[in-house]
Amino acid sequence: MAALPALTASAAQVRQIDSATLLGPQGEVLIVHQQQVYRLRVTSLGKLILTK
């Protein structure tokens, strides 16, 4: 795994979570934002995609 970039003082205050931890073994997670449901998942090319 590549090393994470150095964080600035303001970025250090933002929560950081590994995508594998967030997405779990299913490779996707549902996110509710302002009463709307979004799906964050890993594509077949290993990229992240957020869909409504």
Explain what this protein looks like in three dimensions.
With 52 residues, this protein is mainly beta. It has a domain of 30 residues: Complement Module, domain 1 (Ribbon), CATH 2.10.70.
Topology at a glance:
Blueprint: H1 19-23, E1 28-33, E2 36-42, E3 48-51
Antiparallel strand pairs: 1-2, 2-3
Largest sheet features = 3 strands, antiparallel
Mean pLDDT: 90
Q: What is the string of SSEs from the N terminus onward? A: HEEE
Q: What characteristic shape results from the CA principal axes?
A: extended
The overall strand count is 3
Radius of gyration: 13 Å
Summarize the amount of helix as a percent range.
under 10%
**Could you name the CATH homologous superfamily of one domain?**
Complement Module, domain 1
CATH architecture of one domain: Ribbon
Q: CATH fold name of one domain, please? A: Complement Module, domain 1
* Strand content bin: 25-35%
Number of H- or I-type helical stretches: 1
Structural class: mainly beta
Which class of one domain in CATH terms?
Mainly Beta
Please state how the strands of the largest beta sheet are arranged side by side.
1-2-3
Poorly predicted spans: none
Measure the end-to-end span: 30 Å
Core attributes:
mainly beta; Complement Module, domain 1
Characterize this entry briefly.
This protein is mainly β and 52 residues long. 10% of the residues lie in helices and 33% in strands. Strand 1 and strand 2 form a beta hairpin.
